[in-house]
């Protein structure tokens, strides 16, 4: 019987890492970048100048054009807003020529008139690094980036330190993780050409990912969904330290839940990738949750309550002050964790997840890719999963149907009646509904047109009604947690007792009819037959 298992060689990729300028010296001396008996070449000066039209016609086509004085070459690259879009991947090169006319002669239409948009002046050092017998090609660029307007260079410069690693995916990721364990090094969330345009003030909009279709393979569908989630997740986490408001924490927490629901849905093809991510995601959850809880408590409980009172109340003022202090402490703990090696390890494992390095449990026979596709992979333009299922049983349409039907059966069978169900158990049931909703949302394009939308609508209604009961209980718990110790002044203890009583009564008043509404909504959901 012929062998029905075939594994594709791991793709060659070009990872791009961003390092804090303050850690540059430590980066250049890091043991992971040393190769025995090989003297590292000297860094060479260079200036890169980017060009586009006044209306950013090239950027609108997901293209970037740059002139490198050291090589006397013009290079056309992918800007990185299109698909495939992966965090940590360098901008893919398309073509080079001695001038734009040469690119046009090669068949690439360059719009005009061109004008300078940004420049990067600094040093570039290219050197090999051997990792477990595999040679990786590394390039370190350091310099000062400056936007260029029609009036000339502006003063909004920025220091840039980027390291690219070219080689087999697993070895390149291994080197990146070794560096990140000791240094503030993260994957590039945007390509270098993107960073230059944003420095100039251009507004960039990523092109939408391809919609899922029932005939798509599960690994291809997973790559599309995971890349979108991870890109959003990492972008939101990066925004938290700037303290621009509650939205980054809120969206990061929502995307964290979506990621966990995604891994649960695709568990059959992820191998041990989920097990490697869960502990780190769990640690992030423990510091992300309190920051969001206090944001919600202040904005949706304390502030509405204060507005409802005819005049300022000392107890509510005390409550706001105490809750604000607790929120600041929660944010400080979160930001501290985001600066630690655990966070950087999580980020690189998420990049690993996006690039498809986790091996599925079941492998099937496949044809080798055509030469053109292989060349594209070697150029870093694609990062197909290492193993691709070809059987119709592994198409996302049938996979999604089976996944959601199984999750539906587990969700719709509560262990007891809802009337006497304690709030903690009701909250667990709500979480099941939320996971099912997230999975239905991410897979709905692979389902029959109406079934997915109807299921999402019913689940959303039930989840929101259940959430009202849970929000009241959480608000009371948070208020009680603010109670001062017996060693505090009597006045503060009295104000705390009044505030806790007000919050408890406020929560009861807003959820008095909640249990009946939950039961009615659940009955409608249980009667619904989506499959």
TrEMBL record:
Signal sequence interval, chain numbering: none
Location of the CHAD domain: 215-527
Pfam families reported for this sequence: CHAD
InterPro entries, per the entry: CHAD_dom (IPR007899), CHAD_dom_sf (IPR038186)
Protein known as: CHAD domain-containing protein
Organism: Acidisoma cellulosilyticum
Classification of source organism: Bacteria, Pseudomonadati, Pseudomonadota, Alphaproteobacteria, Acetobacterales
């Amino acid at each position: 019987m012929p062998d029905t298992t075939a594994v594709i060689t791991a793709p060659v990729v070009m990872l791009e890492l961003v390092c804090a300028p303050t850690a540059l010296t430590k980066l250049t001396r890091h043991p992971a970048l040393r190769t025995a008996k090989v003297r590292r070449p000297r860094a060479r000066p260079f200036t890169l100048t980017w060009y586009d039209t006044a209306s950013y016609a090239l950027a609108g086509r997901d293209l970037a054009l740059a002139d490198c004085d050291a090589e006397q070459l013009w290079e056309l690259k992918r800007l990185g807003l299109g698909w495939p879009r992966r965090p940590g991947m360098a901008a893919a090169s398309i073509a080079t020529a001695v001038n734009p006319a040469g690119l046009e002669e090669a068949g690439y239409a360059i719009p005009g008139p061109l004008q300078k948009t940004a420049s990067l002046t600094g040093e570039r050092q290219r050197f090999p690094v051997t990792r477990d017998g595999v040679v990786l090609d590394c390039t370190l660029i350091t310099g000062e980036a400056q936007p260029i307007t029609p009036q000339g260079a502006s003063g909004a410069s920025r220091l840039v330190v980027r390291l690219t690693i070219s080689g087999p995916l697993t070895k390149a990721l291994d080197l990146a993780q070794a560096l990140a364990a000791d240094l503030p090094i993260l994957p590039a969330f945007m390509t270098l050409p993107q960073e230059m345009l944003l420095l100039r003030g251009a507004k960039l909009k990523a092109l939408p990912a391809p919609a899922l279709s029932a005939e798509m393979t599960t690994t291809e569908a997973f790559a599309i969904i995971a890349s979108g989630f991870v890109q959003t997740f990492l972008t939101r986490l990066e925004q938290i330290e700037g303290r621009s408001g509650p939205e980054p924490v809120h969206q990061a927490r929502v995307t964290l839940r979506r990621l966990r629901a995604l891994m649960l849905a695709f568990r059959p093809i992820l191998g041990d990738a989920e097990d490697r991510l869960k502990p780190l995601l769990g640690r992030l959850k423990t510091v992300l949750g309190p920051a969001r809880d206090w944001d919600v408590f202040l904005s949706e409980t304390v502030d509405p309550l204060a507005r409802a009172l005819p005049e300022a109340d000392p107890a509510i003022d005390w409550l706001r002050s105490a809750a604000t202090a607790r929120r600041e402490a929660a944010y400080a703990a979160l930001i501290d964790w985001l600066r630690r090696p655990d966070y950087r390890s999580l980020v690189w494992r998420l990049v690993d997840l996006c690039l498809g390095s986790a091996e599925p449990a079941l492998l099937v026979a496949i044809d080798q890719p055509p030469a053109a596709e292989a060349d594209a992979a070697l150029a870093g333009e694609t990062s197909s999963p290492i193993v691709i299922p070809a059987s119709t049983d592994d198409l996302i349409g049938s996979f999604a149907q089976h996944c959601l039907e199984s999750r539906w059966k587990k969700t719709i069978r509560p262990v007891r009646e809802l009337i006497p169900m304690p709030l903690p158990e009701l909250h667990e049931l709500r979480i099941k509904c939320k996971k099912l909703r997230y999975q239905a949302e991410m897979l709905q394009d692979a389902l029959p047109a109406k079934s997915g939308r109807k299921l999402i609508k019913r689940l959303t209604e039930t989840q929101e009604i259940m959430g009202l009961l849970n929000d009241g209980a959480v608000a009371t718990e948070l208020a009680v947690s603010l109670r001062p110790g017996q060693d505090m002044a009597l006045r503060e203890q009295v104000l705390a007792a009044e505030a806790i009583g007000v919050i408890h009564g406020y929560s009861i008043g807003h959820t008095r009819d909640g249990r009946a509404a939950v039961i009615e909504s659940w009955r409608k959901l249980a009667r619904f037959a989506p499959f």
